[in-house]
Amino acid sequence: MFKFKLQALLDYRKGIEERHLVEFSDKVRRLEAEKGILEELKGERLVLIGQLVKMQERRLSATDISLYHSYIHYIKDTQATQEGVISEAANEVEDKREELLDAVKKRKVIEILKQKKMAEYQADIISRERKELDEVGIFRFIKRAKIEEISSSL
Fold it and tell me: What's the pTM value of the predicted model, to 2 decimals?
């Protein structure tokens, strides 16, 4: 029966790969959540600008207009901050992607080695079986030859 000597290493590499996959997935989810926050901020800013335009049709005090402008400016600053957060999250996703790809490569190297060792093992088994069958054939031939020799001498 085939037993791969580096099976423990292969199992370890699979575990590392799974851990990196989970971390990568978490980072992707975080990136998507941060993008969602940015979209909400953009939507809120557009709504505020629309409200300000409608409010300007009526008579408003300078204080009200100033408050709206200040809040719109605050949302714009928050958007810029959120874009920085998204950029950082995207970098983290890329780092985790590279770690995951590295882990996959390392696991595949061991799996390829396992496949080669398995092929060598199977070739060795086939070779042994062939030798045994050849020996059985030779012994049968010798046995028949002896039987024929004995029967012809009688």
Answer: 0.75
First to last CA, the chain: 50
Give residue for tokens 């300000």. Answer: 52
Instruction: Label residue 35 exposed, middle or buried (CB < 10 Å: 0-12, 13-18, 19+).
Output: middle
As a whole number of angstroms, the distance between CA 13 and CA 105 comes to 10
List all residues 6 or more positions away from 28 whose beta carbon is below 8 Å from its beta carbon.
Answer: 93
Sign of CA dihedral 74, 77, 83, 87: negative
Instruction: For domain 7-109, give the CATH number.
Output: 1.10.287.1700
Per-residue pLDDT tens digits for 70-115 = 999 999 999 999 999 999 999 999 999 999 999 999 999 999 999 9
Cα–Cα distance measured from residue 79 to residue 67, given in angstroms and rounded to the nearest whole number? 18
Closest CA to 48 of 64, 37, 62: 64
